[in-house]
Write a structure and sequence with these properties.
There is one protein chain. The protein is built from 11 helices and 13 strands. The chain has 327 residues and is an alpha/beta fold. Strands 3-4-5-6-8-7 form a 6-stranded mixed β-sheet, with helices on one face. It is globular, with a radius of gyration of 25 Å. The relative contact order is 0.07.
Length: 327
């Protein structure tokens, strides 16, 4: 954790630890036993501690209680950073306003489209992650080399973004569209190198080979996003993956928040696969009630075997219309 940090940052961290230790010693000497002399910080404070660096412009929080906790924690360890903590009070869900929800959904897809009409396909295996660059719908100049170069350049920018967003670690192999000119290969390589300089994790890249392949490694700090928010499918015995139950509930909550903001209707039918229906009725009954109360809606749960395990549909109780894709 300390590698690559400047002296001032390390000194600041040391001073903070020494202050904590003095408090622990004082409490141990003065308080009657048994007593808790130290309790580690909450996960949110831990995340703020690790990620709130000088290059972060602001931290936006949409929960008043969480905002107060973070504000208090930052004020005690880095008072000069307090101005960066902001409370978000708009009715539009925070993740929707900043496009995080949209990016999150995209990060679960294998295929990511480029502005030019080309696309990249991201595949995970036990040994490595492979990324394939395709021309897709792109119709450019008749010059194949120029077309390939343009798509590869866009792909390099998006690949670096997706790797960071999905927190992909380990060995990564990128299959670019074949380019004949060495200067074009070098430009694409340096574009990728430039984009990865924004990455907090350690990254090492090898030049593009004669076969259009680029091999790289990225520091694995945790399980990547794909495995974090998905779980083994009980229907295919682990050969494929679906959205985890926790993520499934989060998606339902996000939908309800958008619906509450934009609609006055208050009675809905929630259709899910029977497997998820059983889970919601048994293990998530209280959470489901809380969501209804929180979003001022009345939900009727229905099982629909034609739906995928990780799919849900919202039906208007008033009109019988499927309104899922409207919000």
């Amino acid at each position: 954790m300390a590698e690559g940090k400047d002296i001032d940052t390390l000194k600041k961290d040391l001073d903070s630890l020494l202050k904590k230790w003095k408090k622990i010693e004082k409490k141990a000497m003065t308080e009657p036993a048994p007593v808790c002399v130290y309790e580690d910080i909450e996960i949110v404070s831990s995340v703020v501690r690790d990620l709130l660096t000088p290059d972060v412009s602001k931290v936006i929080v949409d929960s008043k209680s969480l905002y107060k906790k973070i504000h208090s924690y930052v004020g005690s360890v880095s008072p000069e950073m307090v101005r960066k903590i902001e409370y978000y009070s708009s009715r539009t869900p925070l993740f929707d306003f900043y496009g995080v929800e949209k990016d999150f959904r995209k990060s679960l897809n294998k295929r990511v489209w480029l502005k030019s009409g080309g696309f990249i396909v991201i595949e995970h295996t036990e040994a490595m992650t492979t990324i394939d660059v395709n021309s897709g719908k792109y119709i450019g100049k008749k010059d194949y080399e120029e077309n390939a170069f343009k798509i590869n350049l866009q792909a390099a920018q998006e690949i670096a973004r997706q790797v960071r967003l999905r927190d992909i670690g380990g060995i990564i192999v990128i299959d670019f569209i074949d380019m004949g000119k060495k200067e074009n290969k070098d430009k694409v390589f340096h574009e990728l190198l430039k984009e990865f300089k924004k990455d907090r994790a350690k990254v090492a890249l090898a030049p593009i080979s004669d076969f259009g392949l680029l091999e790289m490694t990225r520091q694995r700090t945790r399980l990547n996003l794909f495995y974090t928010v998905s779980e083994e499918c009980p229907m295919c015995h682990g050969t494929g993956r679906i959205t985890s139950k926790e993520t499934f509930m989060t998606q339902i909550e996000s939908w309800l928040r958008r619906f509450r903001t934009e609609s006055k209707e208050r009675r809905l039918v929630l259709q899910v696969h029977p497997y998820m229906g059983s889970y919601l009725q048994k293990e998530m009954k209280k959470i489901l009630k809380k969501l209804q109360w929180k979003n001022l809606v009345l939900l009727k749960l229905e099982e629909n075997s034609s739906l995928r395990l990780d799919e849900f549909r919202f039906i208007s109780a008033k009109t019988g219309e499927d309104i899922t894709d409207k919000f």
